[in-house]
Automatic annotation (TrEMBL):
Residues binding [4Fe-4S] cluster: 17, 21, 24
Recorded name of the encoding gene: bioB
Name assigned to this protein: Biotin synthase
Domain of life: Bacteria
Any GO BP annotation: biotin biosynthetic process
Amino acid sequence: MKDIFLCSISNVSSGNCSEDCGYCMQSAHNDLDIKTYKFKDKDEVLKEAKFLRNHGALGFCLVTSGRGLDSNKCEYIASLASMISKEVPSLHIIACCGRADRQSLSYLKENGVASYNHNLETAKSHFPKICTTHTWEERYETNENVASVGLGICSGGIFGLGESKEQRHEFLKQVASIKPHTVPINFFINAKGLKINQPTMSREEALECVKLAKQYLPNVRLMIAGGREAVFGENQKELFECGINAVVLGDYLIAKGNTPATEVERIRSYGYDIAKTCH
């Protein structure tokens, strides 16, 4: 029986992003009405961390909107990581703050961040169709920087952005090349106001994507994330049978997720247990 790793997200800086990623609700280029704020109160973030750890989360990801990790964000994330690592030492702290250089990443590591999440999102050949304000190469370079300072790499992407089946193979080869320990798998869900307009993927096609990811990434943590509720509804057992061994617990960046207790109960009803350690 495999244990399922649980990871949670805290949207600590929301909206008003200058980048034009066509799939993202936080982009100022997309016409969506979302809650925006610069930095979430630190005590509120700590409260979230404790609550989610009590429900089985081992990973806790601090996410900021915007293109990259500037000095203000770096100080804010470092202070959050330092505080959380002291108060909840059993949590594996992840930062997700866009483009980052080696110096900033080293500073985060010194202050308690264990891994960095920066998704490649899609194949290099397809990326210009979903974003024009920065390049795929920039994303790849950030992951190289993450590896160079000794942080763990968390990098995946979104299926259903209009990419071809060949581009899915290309994308997974590229993800495998950066040697991530965790790969988030998302399915694109259309929303009014987004620049990308693609239908919701069928259950069968989504499972094929998971199986393909397992082929290219047999020894990594495959984490099911955004879009799974829309595609699979309440019956998600096949995802785990096809290779998923990690789940985003609780809310997403903008969308609400199931309550942690509901999610844990579902996983256990499928015959799996909740992972107790990160390894």
